[in-house]
Every structure is written in C-alpha cells, then in structure tokens.
Amino acid sequence: MDDSTRLTSSQSTKVFIQRDYSNGTAVRFQERFPIELEGRIDQNIFVHILEEINKIYDDAEQLSFKTFMENCCACLTGYLLLLCMPTHYEKCVKKAAHYINEQNEHVLNRQGILMLDPMEKGLRCVSNPKDKNARC
Question: Listed GO cellular component terms (predicted)?
Fold first, then answer.
C-alpha cells in the first residue's frame, strides 16, 4: 500500500496469529482463521498462506545430512564458515520473508491487509496490521 491509502493506527485493526506449540517449540503458527478478517479475505486463501509459511519453517527445522555436514564443517572451522555462507535455516528464513512479501504484493494488499514477517517480532507471531506499528 502506498502512503495515501495507509490508515492511521487509531483506524487500523491489528490481528496476531500466535505460535502453535502443540507439537513442541519448532516455529509453527496457528492455522485458524481470525474472526477479525472475516469478510475481508477468503478463509481458504488466508489459511493456505499460513500453511505455506509453516511448511517453510518446517523445512528450516528439518535435520538432514546437509545440515549435519554444515554444522560439522562450521565446528571444524571455529564457526568462521558461517561468516562465508548462509546456513540452511537462514536461507529458509529469507524464503519465508520473500514468500510473505510476495503474498502481500499479490493477494493481501488488495484486501487491505499487510502481513509482517514474523522474524521482525522474534518469531512470536505473524501480525496482520493495516500499518506497521503493531506489537506482539
């Protein structure tokens, strides 16, 4: 949204999608549709966006031979390797941020919704304010 269509914080509605700790402490967000967004966006579209974000963070948390070797090489180099290349987790976090920006641009902004990257809030929640002054 450009500045001419942005609402003031007194006019905006802030909706927080909280973390889902039902399966442990892995980064995962609740896939329930918030009632505050009813009538503003199709429930299936919004839940699909949350599912995709959860899939990206699930991939980041997965243990694989690649992440095992990444950590072993980092340890052997005194973690200097991490200064030269991004980790699998960092790549997934970037992928999630890119996906959220893409969804904002193509889907959510048209409905008057702006989804903020959860990394900005310490991975505590995904927020959906109309402005960027939301707090988790």
Answer: endoplasmic reticulum membrane; palmitoyltransferase complex
Domain count for the chain: 1
Residue 30 lies in a domain: yes
Decide if 77 is inside a domain: no
Its pTM stands at: 0.80
- Rounded Cα distance between 83 and 15, Å, is 36
Asked if 61 and 27 touch (Cβ cutoff 8 Å), the reply is: yes
Q: Going residue by residue through the chain (136 aa), what tens digit of pLDDT does each one get? A: 444 344 444 445 678 888 899 989 899 999 989 888 888 899 999 999 999 999 999 999 999 999 999 999 999 999 999 999 999 999 999 999 999 999 999 998 888 888 888 888 776 666 666 544 444 4
Can you give the residue range of the structural domain that contains 51? 16-56+97-127
Helices and strands per DSSP (H, E), number in the chain? 4, 2
Distance CA 40, CA 42 (A): 7
Closest among 28, 1, 7 to 17, alpha carbons compared: 28
CA distance 43 to 20: 19
21 lies in some domain: yes
